[in-house]
Amino acid sequence: MKVALLGQPNVGKSSVLTRLTGARVFVSNYPGTSVELVSGTLVVAGHRFEVLDTPGIYSLGLAEAEETVSRKTALAPDVGLILNVVDASNLGRNLALTLELLELGKPVVVLLNQIDRARALGIDINHRELSRLLGCPVFPFSAVTGEGVVELTEYLHGGLTRGFHPPRPAAEVVPLFTGPGGGEGCRGDCRRCLREEELVHCPQEEVWARHERAHAIAMRVTRLQGEVRQGWLARLEAVVDNPWAGTPLLLGLLYAAFRGLVAFVGWAEEIVAGIFGPVQEGLAQGIGRLLPPGFWRDVLSSGVPEGLLVPFALVLPAMLMVAVLMALLEDSGLLPRYAVALERLAGLFGVSGQAFIPLALGFGCRTPAVVATRMLPTPQQRFIVIALLSIVIPCAATVGMITAVVAALQASLGVVAASMLVVFILLGLVLSRLFGDRTELLYELPPLRVPTL
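and the corresponding structure tokens:
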């Protein structure tokens, strides 16, 4: 049985998938697209559930780009259950998507994820009353602590025998699930629109009405427990989100990360060279004995051992360190803040601030960086970023080679970095003149978190 994880961005769907399925996850492309779907297997009483993690989506009726994959997954006939992951600390906004999912007529389970953070903020949610109003199971859940996993597993086990049933909203809130209609092209039948495969353009009035209904339900089940003392993460978040203090802090952190990368590569090179030194010497002597004296023996006896050493001594440590740094930035919530901080700077090159994300990924590997450009809103922005990735941005392997050359020739790292920066700026300005296309965007900043394994 297939189970789809659906929710708005930054609600922790991937963490929920990891908590439910452990390390048994697989990555594949949705048919006909380059959008990756992560799936895992959850075994309950010998029955296997295939859990699909979908891209974050704010509304089924306003799905665009890769968000249409989430919409098609929810509507797929072979998906028998929808797990709607909701941010418990922002219930009113998240329930707008929940109302749409309930109208699909499929079994829905609502997971109030990050319930531990909501309690820390003084938010008390009556999940039983919310379950009664929505007409579907609602479980407090925490992908960090594991709260709610047992309850969800027991529900899935019970559903294997008695089946999974579509939601039945309470009588007093049934009118909340019917749209008033109106607007150009609107037929006033939200249920029919949401079930159709083609792209839907909901009228703005209906979108706002649905959000108002979601906030009304959230107000009925939410109670604030008074003023709560802010933790150190909340105070740090206030500093980082301040444009004047946060931008220099983020840039300084990025520079420190790059210096740490260079230091780690140098340290790893010494260790790997010490381990593979005897192997190199033996290989060079073997080639020297097999070939007669001359040009080819000199080239192969020195080039082959060095060629075998470079991937382990330079490329592998650099790629490993970049992967760790990117994971830390993403899990801590700092990566989207770089996009916001660099929005105005990116505007000089005709792209939005979120273009920083694929550019940053390019320091690890260009292939996932190029794939990540699909998050950009226009083809012109994607072309500019891909050109910068191909010409200027060094991948992890190139960074390893650069650091090795800088160390061997005792060159100035500052001069090398400044030269690359000048080329980046000049090329970016030229491309922005030719292909620049600015689109105003709204960014959602997730809360700062301590990364966990």
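(Above: one complete record from the training split.) The chain is about 55% helix and 10% strand.
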